[in-house]
Amino acid sequence: MSSQPERSANHLTLALPKGRILEDAISLLSRAGLPITMPEASRALRHEFPGVTVLELRNQDVPVYVDLGVADAGIVGKDVLIESGRAVYEPVDLRFAPCHLSLIREVGASGPIHRVGTKYPHVARQYLAEKGIPAEIVKLNGNIELATLTGLADAVIDLVQTGGTLRANNLQEVDVLFHSSARLIVNRAALKLRRERLRPLIARLRELVREES
Amino acid sequence: MLGVSSVPATISPSAPLLPDGTRDVLPDEWSQREYVRWSLSELFRAWGYQGVELPALEYASAAHPLDSRAFKLIDTGGQVLALRSEFTTALGRLVATRYPAGPFPLRLQYGGQLWLRAQTSELGRLREFTQVGAELIGVATVQSDIELLALARAALDRVGVKADLEVGFPGFVDAVLEDAGLSGAARDALHDAIDRKSGADIDLAATTYGLSSEVTGVLHRLTDLYGGNEVLDEAGRMAQGTRARAAVSHLRAVAQGGDLTLLFDLGVSRRYGYYTGMTFRAYVDGLNQPVLGGGRYQLANGLPGAGFAMGLERLVRALPPGLPPHPETVLALDLPALHAAQQAGLRAELAWTDNRLELKTYSALRGIRRWVQGRELTEVQA
């Protein structure tokens, strides 16, 4: 906290995921009236704009920063938000970065599922419990599909965007857990404390999303 | 023979010093905590709230609202015990057994540690934490709601914490859902979506349960029902049935009778099955976390109750600098000087040796700038 520069009461701190979503997020927020631009490629992780600070984070960390109040608001995929289990407000579906989370198996696989590989252990545990599948969950961090192909797991729960990876690897979606897209999330206290800035921002984002879809 | 290792003994990483989510409190923070605790208990007492202490060990019960998250222990007789995880349930037990006939209203205050085993255990949430609070039992009037909001405001002012007080009414959301003809799983799902202000999840539920666009529109409006007094006007326009209308007129009476600056959020519906009336919390700028929370509920024996608890750890973080005031600490070279210094409002430590060099080194380390001697409190060269 000591490293924070002096800020006005209405200053907004935003948590945005680095990478692909960042560009879409910044473009949408600037069209919604925030004075922010895509930062120059640099090693800076915190970008200062008039009245707005942008924190560039790994997407899994966005709900953490917003829930614990270090950031007032952020943008993150619904998949990451559900996995985080964080109690934040999520007032706007921004509709970009669409994908869905699915149970995936090799084409033709029909045996019992004993082990599931996934980047989403919380979501997977809840889904398997609801379906009554007594499978063990293995937390993996990338190229999840390999787990079924190599026999590490009988199935995987992972994001599907176009389905290209699945087709190329002889895999198929057996079930869809939920559909995801980018969400505006807001800290519960910040929405009230900084409502003069956040309320109009939410309204403008809703209009933009409606116009553009 | 092998030489003795020059590596100092370290603590093995497999045996951490403290369990996750617990911490030591060191003197600076300790004095802030004691200051807050003392200030608040004095304030509550001035409003007629008598103090009670409650055991930290309780019988585990599936009916306890936090049972699944409480630490459990096994007693010598095999009974399952739980570490206290919140105060209201324990206070309800105390009221039912110790004050079955009142007199009501009964005003009680409490404070102490709480433990949650399954606190979302990532950084930033403690599993052992401290709350102080006050409960007003046996009455459910507009005046008693106003009293609690006024007491909450006074408590925040007393410790110099600038906060916004926000009032909600989970039963209002439930009444609007009921008036829209929703029940069962649909109602539960929508409570959850509305509490998270998730427009997308409201739309998802609308598709799943086949809701009309008119009903869906009403649900979306619930997520925008936050702000100042204007919220009550909007809620009044939305209220159809008697329950919803009663909730709004109750809140109007509270808002008008209290002369308090309040925020409202009528989209709050967390624990709507538990709270029977208003709920409220306090937000501190710069902390983005509530420092106070409470509401109206019903005790197990049917008595109405309402109250609030304040999180000590968060309050201390929100405390303005310079609180509590720190009197200077001096080094007293003899006992009469110690007493004289204390009478003059200073803190004094007694010299344990005549070795001036030793005392000088210690004084430098402790930041002690003055030495005193004798009944007359003479300053001597440090």
Structural write-up:
The complex is a heterodimer of chains A (213) and B (382). Chain A has 213 residues and is an alpha/beta fold. Chain A has 2 domains: 12-97 and 181-212, D-Maltodextrin-Binding Protein, domain 2; 99-178, Periplasmic binding protein-like II (D-Maltodextrin-Binding Protein, domain 2). Helix content of chain A is 33%, strand content 30%. Chain B is α+β, with helices and mostly antiparallel strands. Chain B folds into 3 domains: 23-119 and 126-160 and 299-326, Bira Bifunctional Protein, Domain 2 (BirA Bifunctional Protein, domain 2), CATH 3.30.930.10; 163-284, BirA Bifunctional Protein, domain 2, CATH 3.30.930.10; 329-380, no CATH class. In chain B, 38% of the residues lie in helices and 22% in strands. In chain B, the strands form 3 sheets. Chain B has a 9-stranded mixed sheet. A 4-stranded mixed sheet of chain B has the order 14-13-15-16, covered by helices on one side. In chain B, strands 2-4-3 form a 3-stranded antiparallel sheet, with no helix packed on it. In chain B, helix 1 (27-46) packs across helix 10, helix 4 packs antiparallel against helix 9 (242-258) and helix 6 (199-209) runs antiparallel to helix 7 (213-223). The longest helix of chain B is centred in the first third of the chain and has 20 residues, at 27-46. The radius of gyration of chain B is 27 Å and the shape is elongated. The mean pLDDT of chain B is 90.
